[in-house]
Q: What sequence folds into this?
């Protein structure tokens, strides 16, 4: 009887581990330190949940999904940490690639807020102003979009403790991510990949 019980519990442990790994893959994270996000070919749109406008080098752009504009790239600047990807948000500017960084001058109405700006990308994610932690705000949904599943993502700057917010322009809201202005919809079927290194 003891032998059967040990065999069953061993099989259950293996089954649980397999299911956990499969679920992690479906959710777009492997939970390992060498996983990463490379949503860069052809890119994605960051659509603000509350306004349905896209993040762009020009700011927030209305009608971007229907118009097929405002494509950006998400690329891991560091390996995943605590199951979250740490990415640079990249777009094309007049003179090449630009990354979204935390800056001074947030909206005066929001005490403790910080501004954002598009700046030259730092190779290898060495500029922590440009590194955003991707946090799943809600499980992805299949809404029939041909581009892929609808993901609900928060972007948090751990260095400055601000959440990327699209409510009053584009700025860093102080503290955690707390409302729909800080949720970004991304349509893609891509998931985590192995870390490519610097």
A:
């Amino acid at each position: 009887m003891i032998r059967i019980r040990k065999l069953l519990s061993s099989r259950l442990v293996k089954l649980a581990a397999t299911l956990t790994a499969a679920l992690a893959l479906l959710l777009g994270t492997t939970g390992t330190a060498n996983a990463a996000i490379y949503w860069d070919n052809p890119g994605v749109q960051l659509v603000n949940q509350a306004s349905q406008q896209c993040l762009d080098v020009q700011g927030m752009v209305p009608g971007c999904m229907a118009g097929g504009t405002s494509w950006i790239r998400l690329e891991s600047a560091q390996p995943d940490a605590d199951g979250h990807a740490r990415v640079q948000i990249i777009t094309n500017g007049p003179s090449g690639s630009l990354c979204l960084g935390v800056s001074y001058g947030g909206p005066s109405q929001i005490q403790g807020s910080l501004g954002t700006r598009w700046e030259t990308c730092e190779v290898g994610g060495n500029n922590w102003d440009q590194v955003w932690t991707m946090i799943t705000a809600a499980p992805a949904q299949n809404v029939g979009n041909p581009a892929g599943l609808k993901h609900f993502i928060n972007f948090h700057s751990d260095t400055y403790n601000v959440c990327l917010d699209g409510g009053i322009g584009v700025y860093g809201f102080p503290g955690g991510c707390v409302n729909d202005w800080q949720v970004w919809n991304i349509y893609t079927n891509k998931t985590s990949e192995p870390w490519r290194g610097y």
Q: What stands out?
A: The chain is about 15% helix and 45% strand. Residues 139 and 152 are 7 Å apart (CA to CA). Helices lie at 2-26, 64-67.
